[in-house]
Structure formats: structure tokens, C-alpha cells
Amino acid sequence: MAESQYEVDLGNLMAFDPHYQFVSPPSSREEVVKEAIEQGTKLVQAIADALFSLPSTEDPDGPIVKLPAPTTKLPRAKPLPKPRPPTKWEVFAEKKGIQKRKKEKLVFDEQTGTWKRRHGYDRVNDDNDIPIIEAKSTDEPGTDPFVERRKEKKSKVEKQEKNRLQNLKQAAKAGALPSHVKLSATALPITGSQAMPKKVSKDELQNVAGMAAVSTASGGKFDKKLPGEKPPKHEKKYRKFLPAVEGSGMGALEKQQTEKVLNQLISKNSHEILNVEKAVNMYNVKREKKQRKQGGHSSNSSKFKANKKSFKKSSNKGSSNKGKSK
Fold first, then answer.
1. pTM
2. What does each C-alpha distance from 207 to 36, 171, 198, 202, 212 come to in angstroms?
3. Contact 115, 107 (CB under 8 A)
4. What's the CA gap between 79 and 176, in Å, rounded?
5. What is its main location (predicted)?
6. How far apart are the C-alpha atoms of 219 and 237, rounded to whole Å?
7. Gap between the Cα atoms of 167 and 173, Å rounded
8. Burial of residue 177, with CB atoms counted within 10 A of its CB: 0-12 exposed, 13-18 middle, 19 or more buried
């Protein structure tokens, strides 16, 4: 088969033979695999020959070629994204004919006499750089203008965040929500697109409230009680410790606790505290084991020691008798 019959698309690194046909129908799967490998090898060789025919540039890693634009249109893996619905501001701007224009990043600050950023750190007209704010005729006496300015700024931020969430809800309803944005069902419940949050039962709320009440270091002992709140029920018995600071009654308290523990032990194991027969048996068993280990040497040495002791006793008796006779 001539090489000119292959159609090569170097932009997608793809080649195929539109005129290929089986000479005889394959009788088994092995023949199909063998024929596919042979034709695939020829197509790969055609792509390699076409790549080496392109002009290349030298590089330390080897020759580099620039691929041409692809000629074959490949299908998309996913459908085209739907257009995002316009926001409230975009609708208002289109209605009023307002056009978006690019603003400069640096703005001249009249207070400091320097150029500063429009937004971000060390920006122009920063609240921290304003030492004095002129009072208006409508201001009430006793109000702090700096506090009012911060409240106004905070309200603007909250309003902007509310508008942003509303725009996301509209985009989710239209099915044009960006892939990198995920809405939680609890924060933004949307009918039909996401499941509504489950209603929490009374028992679950009581369990959560009880866990939160005893989650402090004191077990909720020093926390303020809510109206109608019941004291926590402790299923387990907690261990009581002695006071860490020594006082007048510290010794008596320790003595009392020690006597209590000893009395419990004596009353519980009174029949095993003084068992003479058991103690003698244990002593005899240990002695027999020791003698077995030592063998005959230990028996001879014990006899020698016994004879030595008897000799000392007899000699002492003889000396005492001599003294008396004198």
C-alpha cells in the first residue's frame, strides 16, 4: 500500500487509511488483532515520516518541530456551556446605556500628595489616613463619624455579597453555573436543582445542646444556664481528687481515706490475709526447688554447716564447765 494513500493530520498526531478493506473476512479474533497491529504500525510510521519532513530547530534535548494547525475537527467530550444570565447591574447598565471603561490603577491622593493604589493595601482615601472628618448639619450630637463610616462600609459589603449570591442562584436555575462554583443547599436552597435541607428533629437539637453544654473544661458547671435548661445528666461516676493546697484538715482527710481503703481490703479478703498453712507450703516448695537445682553439693554443705554449728555449741559448753570448776 503506497504511503500517499494515508491521510495524516499532524496537528492531532493522527493518521488513517480511508481505502482500507479486509481482503478476506477474519475467521478468529487472533487474526483481527494481528491485522490491526500491522496496520497500526504502518500508520505510526507514516506519522513519524511526516514529522521528520517538517523544519526543525536544534535544542539541547534534541530537534524540535512546530506542529501545524489540526485539520480534523474532533467532537467535544461535554456539551457547550450555556450562556450566563446577565446580572442586575448588567441589566441596569444596558438599560441606561452605561459602558464599562477601564480605570487607572494609580490615583493621586490629595491628603498625602502622592500617587496611591485605587484598591488594596495603602490605597487612596483610606480610613486610617483621615485624621479629621468634617461634621454635617444633619449629624446628631454625640455620634462618632468614624464608627458611622465603618458601619456604612460594612453595609455596602453585605449588600454586594447578597447581590452576588442572588446572581449565582439565577445562574444555577438557568443551568449556567460555572464548574468551579458550588452552592450549598443550606445557604442557597434552589427549588428543583438541589435537595432542600433536612429539618432537624427535637431530639437531635436536645442532643446537640447537651453536648455543647458539657463541652467546656468544667463540664458546663460554670456556664450560664438558659431559661428552661435542665442540668446535664452524667451517666458515669467521676473521680474525686483531694485538694491540691494543704490545710488544717488535710492530714485527717488523708488518714480517713487510707483507713477506708484498708478496711475495704480487709473486709473483702479477710480469709486470705493470714493463711499460715498456705505460707508454709509455698516456703517448702521453693526450698525443694532450690535444693534440686544445687544437687548433692548443697546437701553436703548443709550437713557440714550443721556439724560445725553442733561442734561450736559443744565447745562452748565445755569452756563454761571449766570456768565453773575453777
1. 0.38
2. 66, 38, 17, 9, 9
3. yes
4. 12
5. nucleus
6. 13
7. 10
8. buried
